[in-house]
## 1
Amino acid sequence: MQIVRDTEAEIRLPADSSPGSLTKFQSEIDKRLSNGTTAISINCSGLMRVTSSHIGTLWFAYTKCKDAGVNLNILSATSNLEESLKTADLHDLIIPAKTSAAKIPVIRIQGTNSDDLRLLAFEFHPTIEDINRALNEFRDFMLALGIDPETTGALETMFYETATNIREHSSLSASDWINVTSEVDSFGVTVQFTDPGERFDLTERDSSFDPGKAIKEGQTRGFGIELVKKLADSISYMRQDGHSNVLTMTRYWRNR
Amino acid sequence: MTTRGIQQRTIDEKTVLIVPGPKLDNENAADMSSAIGAAQLEGYLDIRIDMSGLQMLSSAGVGAILGSVEISRQQGGDITLWNPSAKVRNVLEILDLGEYLSIKNGEAAGPTT
């Protein structure tokens, strides 16, 4: 089995800047936002000649996404586009440096000879933007395999909270990579995170969470590890070769 | 008023409705916390968070709400979570918060009862 994907998640900014093309593009942005997407990626690779309509359209996308709290990723911006955005003083808003550097390079979803096993492997930077993009990839992977909503929800939370804990506790730089592999088999879904940061063993963290006390004391942090520990049916940590954290979690099927 | 996808609307002199976007996570948890804090300072006792459109609630989002509940209760009011989806409710239940938080279904913008 092989699932080919990724390009469908992107919206291509049309090189043709006729009102019809750009209106269609804007409608697609509106449609994705109303569907509750958490990130929108615009592929600008075909844009050799940039017009004011293109800039206006990107500004439209930027303001729409900002108002909706949705990440906007501009992919493959041509030098002409970057220059035009700089001239309009919009470059740093629409293509912030951290987003430009944070692209998930390779997404591979490959099956094996066995129908019981599905694999996903990819890498991402420890930034809020990349974590959101990685979560979208992970979610799409599960949707493509028809995994039930309850399991998908649990795994999304495990994924997001683990990645966020790595970002906050492993002292990684924005240029480091977090590697993720996920295997789906007849028992459940296993997700493994590997990062080159300082030792961070999530399994060692205190898990004596008291919800009543948390409310009374106005606790605002520390729920992520609790969520991961409660959602994962098995969880293990290994410090690999003295320089990598390897966290492996499995969520077993409940609805099969 | 809208801040990073978080909208706020007054229902009456005691009641305010806060509507997050499709997600409440590290990116906008501080905005949610600020919105709640501002409502508390303005004297709203019935702070309603309409979660009907919320698709993802992270631990940071939970913290933004949890960190503010006791303040409202000490003022004689409360923060009520309206219409959370099964997915969002599941996050709250995993943390055993269901019995400690006020969760309601119905018309979030309805009159104070």
## 2
Amino acid sequence: MHTSEFRPLDVERIRKDFPIFATEPPLAFLDNAASTQTARPVVDAMDAYYDTYRSNIHRGIYRISEQATEEYERARERVARLINAPRTRQVIFTRNTTESINLVAYSWGNQNIREGDEIVLTVMEHHSNLVPWQLLAQRTGATLRFLEITDEGLLDFTQFRDLLTEKTKLVAMGHVSNVLGTINPIQSVIEAAHAVGAKVVVDAAQSVPHFHVDVQQLDCDFLAFSGHKMCGPTGIGVLYGKLELLEEMPPFLGGGSMIRAVERDVSTYADLPAKFEAGTPSIAEAIGLGHAADYITHANLAAIHVHEQELLKYAHHRLKEIEGITIYGPSAPHQKAGVISFNIAGIHPHDIAGMLDMHGVAIRAGHHCAQPLMKRLDVIATARASFYLYNTVEDVDRLYEGLCRTQKLMTRRRR
Amino acid sequence: MNIYQEELLDHYENPSNYGTLPNPDISHEEDNPLCGDQIRMDLLVEDDKIKEVRFCGHGCTISLAAASMLTEEIEGKTLDEVKQLTKDDILEMVGIPLGPVRIKCALLALKVLKAGAYGINCWPGEEDE
């Protein structure tokens, strides 16, 4: 971890930055893998833009437009610092992780992937890191190869080495599974992929918000994540890429801001990062994301990780007591992020989520945009609780109590 | 109001007309792609009347209870009468307020019925949209 001195989270103080928790009893919000709450300083920074210097960025020859441009670019610096990007221009603002991955699939993919090439994915990918590659394979005649998982939800690394050949041009993998919570050994994956000359796209939507991710240490080629899963607003995401790759890639979307000179039939394109940011971007959201990056850094990412590990251990310990429960994913906490997916025999996950809602506990139920993984686990859906820096042991207790009540209500008349 | 009230749970735990028919005149199955719930409905039709009906599948309390209630409602009715059933009829049967996501759970059985019997392939209530 990056930080020099470890200090535990002051959760009580943190919770004051989230007005949604001010009710009594407070909302037990356990759907953070889908989207987190937005921190007050983030909303304040966005409000300041709207209230005091609302204007378009770039080229504005007046004070508030210059200020907006400065703040937008400062947000890029804040994000670059968060992931330790060597250069600020390697941070491209997109709408979300999905758009970031699509950008790579269209721009880099169309240019570099040919018929007969292979793209290696895992069965645990979120649809956002699967469907763009299916589309690329259909456009180019490339083949998708899938890395399987063990029954514990860990990657089968022996199979991975067998899958990697000189045909492998790309490995696209989630850093942390949004369903199982599995923390994939992404550093080893990247080393092995590079050894056969393949590039690596890391879907970091579930990792960057929760522990320190250093793109230089990982040596990943591309990395994508979203603002709304890290105390930031919706509508803003990030693509990081290696400089030489981004510079060689053709534009993704065409339009304003991404050009240098436009003639009737041809154009030349702007330098990075503008080349990939066509049109007026989400200015307030980018500013908000910059502040969210600072917020979680200031809260201390190492402490956030430890806090979530403690909640996860406690949740495992309590939920295991429930009769008929199946918990998916690794049993060793160090291989797992703050995500706990489960089913209770005889109760549909939607009923679990519906009843918990009546007790002020918000969890998710469904296929979690990971249908191939649901098939591998041989389930239709799961219930999922996921933690973040503002969650407490009391939230886990209320989850446990809500589950007990649900089970009592749903099974009392069964023989 | 409790969305898991007694009647609903009764239907869920002891559904009416659960199962399949050996030689149905109409048999149709659909799923709700949002949650993976799946319902199949078999009908035996005589003189334009629904003589027997069975349903099977998997789903949450609301989708299975609504299916059970619907089969009770349509048995013995003519195909014309059944065709008139609307989204509101189902919601009245279920008898509890439902949010936009769970409404689809309640309507899945009617969707299966209408698609199977009349070839109407859209969610009840969205016919005009």
